[in-house]
Amino acid sequence: MNDKQKDLKNQDVLLVTEKGSNKLKVVSGINEDGTPKTVDPKTKNEPEFLKIDKHADVLENFMSNFLRQCKDPTHFQFFKIPFEQLEKIVPVLQEMLKNPEEPSNKEILDNHRVLPEAFSKKEYQAVDESRIDWKQFEQLGVTKEMLEQTKSMDKLLNWQKTPVLLPIKAEIGETVIRTDARLSFRETPEGKLSLVVHALRKEPQLEGLVYGARLSEDDKQNLRQTGNAGRLVEVEPVKDHKMMAFVSVDKLTNELIAVRADKIKIPNEIKGVTLNEAQKTDLSQGKATYIEGMTSKNGKEFNATVQINADKRGLEFKFDNGNKLEKSQNQNQQQDQSEGTKFRIPTKLLGAELSPQQQTQLKAGQTIYVTGMTDKAGEKFNAYIKVNTEKGKLDFFKWNPDKAQKQGAEVTPDNTAKTQVAVNSEGKTDEATKNLTEPIKQGQTAPNEKQEQKKEEQKKEVKKSKGMKM
Questions:
Q1: DSSP count for the chain of H helices, then E strands
Q2: CA-CA distance, 42 to 44, in Å (whole number)?
Q3: Using CB atoms within 10 A as the burial measure, which of 28, 61, 164, 216 is most buried?
Q4: C-alpha distances in Å from residue 240, one per residue of 107, 232, 262, 360
Q5: Predicted confidence band at 103 (pLDDT cuts at 50, 70, 90)?
């Protein structure tokens, strides 16, 4: 595959049809009246296609111009598909457009549909203070003076949450409810300014439906450990309106926050460092990426793990071992060197690549879960990993040792992982596996029937050979 083919493989094209029609064409540009320029959906017309790179602003720019110039935007329907599947998908979509309201057809069409209104830029200006209904605050026991003292007014007037938790008192009949919460403004469809209370929760509610979606076990673990899901989650906040979103935990209230992925733009540069394609891809997919050589406001260079945080609606910086931005690069290097004398964190563990985030977590004394490790015999296994600072090595666990400690359970390295690594990778044996010529399988700590029989045959052969020698 040449470079051009690789580029095309990572690009999408925009299809368009007029309302009431099922004839699809590929968008090639925009006419003076704002209507789409089109060509037939044939690969031979590829040079004329408007190609949408996954990290570029082509689609956003096109839609902005379309909405601004076209007199009747609702006359058109748009669909986005991968270029490499153009001639396969177009006939299918055209057939579905003959009966677009059939549930199975609608689901697939909506998965490819591009809504122009999603690209309309609403200008968020500071809230006019005269619109505020102070009675809403009084009912919660919050005063204007309290907001000014906590520097919350500026945040509220710019559609953000208060930067701190505020003591809230709500009276329901004769019952008085007291809690801590963050506050924010939202505008109702009728244009009224409404106060939203983000109450403090004991812990994030990760079970059940979260914005209409069920989180995977990896999502839950990531949210507990890092505050971010670590991937894009398909949510359905309103029935039949699915969307890909970044999901994070509000670290002050433990509330789960979801933000549509297309609402957050991935930058080309962060703190003076130009991002490569891999880093931009990771960020756009909700993953963390480690960036070196960034420059702070005071001109000092620093390194950090960067990730999209839905609560902040932007980038979040995490520093090794809690290092603050103000620490100089030399201080960071000295700390890394002193820690390196105790135990060097590997980049690869038994064939499994450790991400920068996992390496950072290990260095900070946290537990990570590693999948797809391979022992010397070629068997795959997974385990929780944590640095044993006393012995200067990595310990393997079957269960998360941090959770077990919180529950008061005794924590010991996972025997399954230890036996497998010791026997298959380190060449050690115990009575259960002694004299075996076949590797034990994942989760096996004793020989199976076939191996036991083979071991007995080997013993007889040894005795027989000894007798012949005598």
A1: 14, 24
A2: 5
A3: 28
A4: 8, 18, 18, 40
A5: confident
In terms of average pLDDT, the best of 24-28, 33-37, 125-129, 438-442 is: 24-28
Residue with tokens 């995977």: 216
The pLDDT tens digits of the residues spanning 142-157 come to 999 999 999 999 889 8
Best CA proximity match to 397, nearest among 384, 387, 386, 408: 384
d(CA 331, CA 318): 16
Residue-wise pLDDT for 242-287, tens only, equals 889 999 999 999 999 999 998 888 998 999 999 999 999 999 999 9
Give 242: exposed, middle or buried? Use CB within 10 Å, 0-12, 13-18, 19+: middle
Residue pair 242/300 in contact by the 8 Å Cβ criterion: no
Q: Which helix (H) or strand (E) holds 176?
A: strand 175-187
* Residue 303 identity (one-letter amino acid): N
As given in the structure block, the two tokens for residue 105 are: 């057809």
Phi/psi class of residue 240: alpha, beta or left (left: φ > 0; alpha: ψ in -120 to 50)?
left
| 3-class secondary-structure state, position 171 | strand
- Burial environment of residue 383 by CB neighbours within 10 A (0 to 12, 13 to 18, 19 or more): buried
As a whole number of angstroms, the distance between CA 7 and CA 318 comes to: 33
291 contacts 267 by C-beta, under 8 angstroms:
no
Polymer length in residues for the chain: 470
Write a three-state SS string for 206-233: CCCEECCEECCHHHHHHHHHHCECCCCE
- Contacts of residue 176, defined as CB under 8 A and 6 or more positions apart, other chains included, come to 169, 170
Judged by average pLDDT, the poorest of 45-59, 127-141, 194-208 is: 45-59
Closest CA to 226 of 186, 273, 286: 286
pLDDT tens digit string along 385-406? Answer: 988 877 778 888 888 887 655 4
Burial class (CB in 10 A: 0-12, 13-18, 19+), 231: middle
H helix or E strand, kind and range, residue 53: strand 51-53
Comparing C-alpha atoms, which of 383, 379, 333, 334 is closest to residue 354? 383
Give the distance between the most distant pair of CA atoms in the chain: 108
Structure tokens that stand for 339 in this block: 């820690």
The single-letter code of the amino acid at 128 is D
Q: Are 245 and 235 in contact (CB under 8 A)?
A: yes
The dihedral over CA atoms of 47, 51, 54, 57, expressed in degrees to the nearest 10, equals: 130
- Mean of the per-residue pLDDT values for the chain? 79
Q: What percentage of the chain has pLDDT greater than the value 90?
A: 34
